[in-house]
Amino acid sequence: MNNDTPLILIVEDDKRLMEINSQALETEGYGIKCAFTLKEARFLLEDQDPDVILLDVKMPDGSGFDFCREIRERSSAAIIFLTSVTETESELEGLVAGGDDYLRKPYGIKLLRARVKRSLKKARKTPQFITRGPFSLNIVSSQAFADNEDLLLTQKEFAVLLLLAQSEGKIYSAEEIWENVWGYSELHDKNALQMTISRLRTKIEETGYTITAYRMQGYAFEKS
């Protein structure tokens, strides 16, 4: 397979659906890897770096949501959940876990192809590293370094710093930060956001940068 060929990993225990999805995506020129269990998927991910992962939520050996969190520790692959669950809470859980998109079963082949194509376009626009001043942010591993020292950020702290640092000096409202980092707005927790930013300020206080709070406006990443 050509190194430029996008690789799709399908994690699905329904063999018939696996066959349909594989054939539909192979005709688009994608490379395909298949896993019928999470155990098989873990094995494949040891030496494969897929561009997109189609992940069934309910697998025989575990939860797709939990596996998504596991994947996010080492991969920036786009993750599209495949599920028959229709509750909004389930979709929110998937997005918070690190998923990028949702397809509810039964879905059409054209929709599947369109979602995969869109995910590939987004993934190719995302660099692995972003640097700002003394900071180097590794998007794949969710690690932030200042002058080559690991800041030991939590996942949420890293996501907030990444959002703000990408547009130095820009003021983001609390609602914008919440929706970008936590993935939804209905359960906006003001205290959780303030505590996350407070911890971030402490961890970056020796770097020459800070996160400034602007009354009634929001927060900005800028030189201290």
Task: Give the helix/strand layout.
Layout: E1 7-11, H1 15-26, E2 31-35, H2 38-45, E3 52-56, E4 58-59, E5 62-63, H3 64-72, E6 78-83, H4 88-97, E7 101-104, H5 109-124, E8 129-132, E9 135-138, E10 143-146, E11 149-150, H6 155-165, H7 174-181, H8 190-204, E12 209-214, E13 218-223
Parallel strand pairs: 1-2, 1-3, 3-6, 6-7
Antiparallel strand pairs: 4-5, 8-9, 9-10, 10-11, 12-13
Helix pairs in contact: 6-8
What does this structure look like?
This protein has 224 residues and is an alpha/beta fold. It has 2 domains: 7-124, 3-Layer(aba) Sandwich (Rossmann fold), CATH 3.40.50; 129-223, Arc Repressor Mutant, subunit A, CATH 1.10.10. It has helices spanning 15-26, 38-45, 64-72, 88-97, 109-124, 155-165, 174-181, 190-204, and strands at 7-11, 31-35, 52-56, 58-59, 62-63, 78-83, 101-104, 129-132, 135-138, 143-146, 149-150, 209-214, 218-223. Helix 1 (15-26) links the parallel strand 1 (7-11) and strand 2 (31-35). It starts with 6 loop residues before the first strand and ends with a strand. 29% of the residues are buried. The model has no long low-confidence stretch (mean pLDDT 87).
Main traits of this protein?
8 helices, 224 residues, elongated, 40% helix, 4-stranded antiparallel sheet, alpha/beta, single chain, Arc Repressor Mutant, subunit A, 5-stranded parallel sheet, 2 domains, Rossmann fold
Question: Could you name the ranges where pLDDT drops below 50 across 5 or more consecutive residues?
Answer: none
The level of helicity is 25-40%
Would you report the number of β strands? Answer: 13
* H/E series: EHEHEEEHEHEHEEEEHHHEE
What Rg is obtained from the alpha carbons, in whole angstroms? 19 Å
How would you state the average pLDDT, rounded?
A: 87
> Which strands sit side by side, in order, in the main sheet?
2-1-3-6-7
CATH domain class name of the largest domain: Alpha Beta
Number of helices: 8
CATH architecture of the largest domain: 3-Layer(aba) Sandwich
Q: What is the beta-strand fraction?
A: 15-25%
Please state the structural category. Answer: alpha/beta
User: CATH topology of the largest domain, which one?
Assistant: Rossmann fold
Distance between the termini: 50 Å
* Morphology call: elongated
